[in-house]
């Protein structure tokens, strides 16, 4: 009897730890979401969207992520997930090349892979790729920044690292738009913050020292925007150097309201996470999967940030 009760207790513990799904039964789909960076508001909002959809569909969802946006940290997480053999893996790869090998191993284990936000160069990886139209978003940022600086002056781009598909696409869209349609804008190129707030701040401080006439900055991701905004604030350049940021976390929204940045390009990470779960379930059940799903972005300004439809797209630190 004591042995039987111990076994029952173990079964109850396993059931209690089964994940974020709202359903049950032996045929419950098991999905793991591997974020690009644990704790960052973009990826936490993505996780919230995924969790809500998982609960709706009765999916057991686990969420993991590295402490830095770094393939050397994400790879062992993926390897551990693969060893656990979930039915599907949602992942935001941290490098277009370095993450091919671990994801190939997952594919060989017949784990259904859905790429969310970022991608890898190997087109055979990812039954569905769900991401913002980042080229279009980068072009929108270029137009907004050019408008803010009156169509003339020098501008700088701050990004994470080369080889991150989403920000590479934003830079491409920004550069193409500036060169094609904004002849009065002098493009100073891109510098990389390694997704570190302190490094982004250092880059801006150095840029201001080298070129006091700097007119504008496009910060291509959340941490770059946070660091660049802090540097402008400390340098007393608020309103003088215009900035457009990509992403809309709480820190960016505060900067917008404080006049540190003039516009934000807000993605829809919650929608990306929800659609990722939907595509994962379809893949596991042998149903039709959509190979590519672009999602929209919203331009957020001080004038519209408090409107209900805009407030819904702002990122969250948790669910």
The helix content is: 40-55%
Question: Which runs of at least 5 residues are low in confidence (pLDDT < 50)?
Answer: 1-25
Main sheet attributes: strand count, strand direction, barrel closure: 6 strands, parallel
What would you call the shape? elongated
With strands numbered from the N-terminus, the spatial order across the biggest sheet is 2-1-3-4-5-11
Give, in order, the helices and strands: HEHEHEHEEHEHEHEHEHEHEEH
Domain Periplasmic binding protein: 38-287
Protein name: ABC transporter substrate-binding protein
Subcellular location: Cell envelope
Keywords: Signal
Question: What would you say this structure looks like, in words?
Answer:
The chain has 319 residues and is α/β, with parallel strands linked by helices. The chain is built from eleven helices and twelve strands. It has helices at residues 2-16, 41-57, 71-84, 100-108, 134-148, 165-181, 197-210, 222-235, 250-258, 269-284, 308-311; strands at residues 30-34, 60-64, 88-91, 112-116, 128-132, 153-159, 185-192, 214-219, 242-246, 263-266, 292-295, 298-300. The strands form two sheets. It has a six-stranded parallel β-sheet, sandwiched between helices. Strands 7-6-8-9-10-12 form a six-stranded mixed β-sheet, sandwiched between helices. Helix 6 links the parallel strand 6 (153-159) and strand 7 (185-192). Helix 3 packs parallel to helix 4 (100-108), helix 5 (134-148) packs across helix 6 (165-181) and helix 7 (197-210) crosses helix 8. The radius of gyration is 21 Å and the shape is elongated. The model is unreliable at 1-25 (pLDDT under 50).
